[in-house]
Specification:
Length: 431
């Protein structure tokens, strides 16, 4: 029987290849959708796992999380700097870190933050050390810059027509280990440097200087500083003191911030802080809650795509049955000859059933492998752009789906086999 099936497939190899490819493509579509949606859920959840609470100005919860956690560029409203000062002194907070963005270098986002954030979210450095001065920077694992490299930040991005900040240079002092998050593609600099580059945060320093100097000198220096800041605001550029020490004690007059990342000491503290800062001026969110709503949207999209995949698979199955029944009709003489030479009905049934089932099973196997490869390619492209590692792979649910599809294929293959089984040898030879 095996030799007969092999000979038959060699004779009809082109039709067999078409059947296998049709089944493979229909299966691969559904597999790709399932694997990619699952990988996106897992990858995004892992990326937000280290951040318990995000606080920003009143606005969109989704955009706040996408910008502060996933570093997606978007203009966010600023909340007063006094919020940061208040949180830094709150006994319910283990650590708090501001994030400031808007600049980039070579396609990588520059993020202003503190040493507390870096030290609390990664374990050590792959090479180098933490930044200690205003003109120093730490880069993520996916940033293709060595320790010691120079960074000249650009306002915005090159695609948006951004301009390089004249005279501002950071030096890379450390490289972080991989985290599988968008922060692998980030360049981290002191938040005070981001403020100073944009002409912010100098007022408090000037006030301290004026406090210790004479009256006439105070007026002259204040006027000069005002003129200088007016020019900086006009050009959207400021300057940094590359050798200045980093000050991470924030006062109430700190510049405005797009977001603050907060690590509460307990779960109860997290809910209390969230409730306290959800008012008309500020917005506090748990990243997990925002992701849950996004997953619901992904689930709806998956349902639509899965329905399309199921529809395509149904059409392929119907086409296969139609083609196979037609093929059985064309092979009536061959089946009749087999019966006339003494082949039992069960042997004819087994030959027709196994031949079709073999082709469909090969198509399902090829479809799963193709779907896995396609999902991995999409995940790699997504990781290269966003920094989020998407874990693509099969689970027990996928293997159960393989068994279900094979069982359905076995039933489907029985339809033409039953037709062949019921054929009379005499009627088949007269056809």
């Amino acid at each position: 029987m095996i030799r007969f099936i092999a000979a038959d497939l060699r004779r009809l190899w082109l039709g067999a290849v078409v059947v296998v490819l049709l089944v493979a493509l229909a299966t691969a579509l559904g597999v790709t959708v399932t694997l990619q949606e699952r990988a996106l859920r897992l990858g995004s959840a892992r990326a937000a796992d280290k951040f318990d609470l995000v606080i920003g100005a009143a606005g969109s919860e989704t955009q706040l999380v996408l910008s502060s956690i996933f570093l997606q560029p978007a203009p966010l409203p600023l909340m007063p700097g006094e919020v940061l000062a208040k949180l830094s002194k709150d006994p319910r907070v283990a650590w708090v870190a501001p994030v400031g963005f808007g600049d980039s270098f070579a396609g990588y986002p520059l993020v202003g933050t503190t040493r507390a954030l870096i030290g609390s979210t990664v374990s050590g450095f792959a090479s180098g050390r933490m930044f200690e001065k205003e003109g120093e920077a730490v880069v993520g694992a996916a940033v293709k810059l060595p320790v010691g490299a120079e960074i000249k930040p650009m306002h915005g991005t090159a695609a948006m027509g951004g301009e390089t900040h004249a005279g501002v240079v950071y030096h890379v002092t450390g490289k972080l280990p991989p985290t599988g998050t968008p922060w692998d593609r980030a360049i981290l600099v002191p938040i005070q440097a981001v403020w100073h580059v944009h002409g912010l945060g100098h007022d408090h320093e000037h006030e301290e200087q004026e406090h210790h100097e004479g009256g006439a000198a105070q007026v002259t220096q204040a006027a000069a500083a005002a003129d200088e800041h007016a020019d900086e605001d006009h050009d959207h550029h400021g300057s940094i003191d590359a050798d200045a020490a980093i000050d991470e004690i924030f006062a109430a007059d700190a510049p405005g911030l797009p977001a603050v990342l907060v690590k509460p000491k307990t779960i109860a503290d997290a809910y209390k802080l969230r409730q306290e800062y959800r008012n008309g001026n500020t917005l506090a969110v748990f990243p997990g809650e925002v992701l849950t709503s996004l997953y619901a949207t992904l689930g709806d999209a998956k349902m639509v795509l899965s329905a399309v995949a199921a529809g395509s698979q149904g059409l392929v199955a119907a086409a296969l049955v139609l083609v196979t029944i037609t093929h059985i009709g064309q092979r009536r003489r061959q089946i009749g000859a087999l019966r006339a030479f003494g082949a039992p009905r069960l042997s004819v049934f087994a030959i027709v059933w196994f031949e079709l089932f073999l082709l469909v099973a090969l198509g399902i196997g090829l479809g799963f492998l193709t779907g896995l490869a396609a999902a991995q390619m999409i995940a790699n492209a997504f990781t290269a752009k966003s920094g989020i590692i998407l874990p693509v792979g099969f689970t027990g649910e996928d293997w159960r789906m393989v068994l279900i599809l094979l069982a359905a294929s076995a039933v489907l293959s029985a339809v033409p086999a039953i037709l062949a089984y019921r054929q009379s040898p005499a009627a088949a030879l007269r056809a």
